[in-house]
């Protein structure tokens, strides 16, 4: 027995081609529409068994707001996302929004159909290889040279980095000045500049931010601090 479907995609021609292929396989495709302001309302009004939602950027913020709205109004509609090879974040975002599955957009029609049947049955429709790749990336993340700690370190001068290390070690202005061989007023100025550049309001916040982002560890390698 065919499934009552709706196809929603950025590219109308692709949506219509997929709809036509599914019709030839005996499914009842009620509409093919581009995701615009009224797309979710259209799905809610038609209430298909399964909605195929195409996206080119599964990790972009807000891309699955459509899914959230559909599931809020029509929880019985299974939403199946069609997209590129996803990052773990993309898969997580789709399921967090309420999607029933994720299928690569270069999947053969037979694979799409299997996912549709699983989604309608209430099963998670995700290829094992996609999950394997996602878990592999989560367990062995690629190095990110432009991470938050590196970005923050790049904002500070070498002397300010040393000041931050000393602040995190609990040194007051007098000890910072003595340890660095500078006047207390100069040390105080350096501390204020560090707080301003890090966007925090106190020494405690600066130390916490440095520890949370790993900045303190990297800074410590450059400036081991007082012995």
UniProtKB/TrEMBL annotation:
The opening ranks of the lineage are:
Bacteria, Bacillati, Actinomycetota, Actinomycetes, Kitasatosporales
What Gene Ontology terms for biological process does this UniProt record contain?
Answer: phosphorelay signal transduction system; regulation of DNA-templated transcription
Is this entry keyworded Lipoprotein? no
PROSITE patterns, per database record: HTH_LUXR_2 (PS50043), RESPONSE_REGULATORY (PS50110)
CDD domains per record: LuxR_C_like (cd06170)
Q: Where is the Response regulatory domain?
A: 4-120
Instruction: Write down the Pfam families for this protein, in alphabetical order.
Output: GerE, Response_reg
InterPro entries assigned to the protein according to its UniProt record, in alphabetical order: CheY-like_superfamily, Sig_transdc_resp-reg_C-effctor, Sig_transdc_resp-reg_receiver, Tscrpt_reg_LuxR_C
Protein's recorded name: Helix-turn-helix transcriptional regulator
Matching entries from PANTHER family are given as: DNA-BINDING TRANSCRIPTIONAL ACTIVATOR DEVR_DOSR
Keyword list (alphabetical) reads: DNA-binding, Transcription, Transcription regulation
Which source organism does the UniProt entry give? Streptomyces capoamus
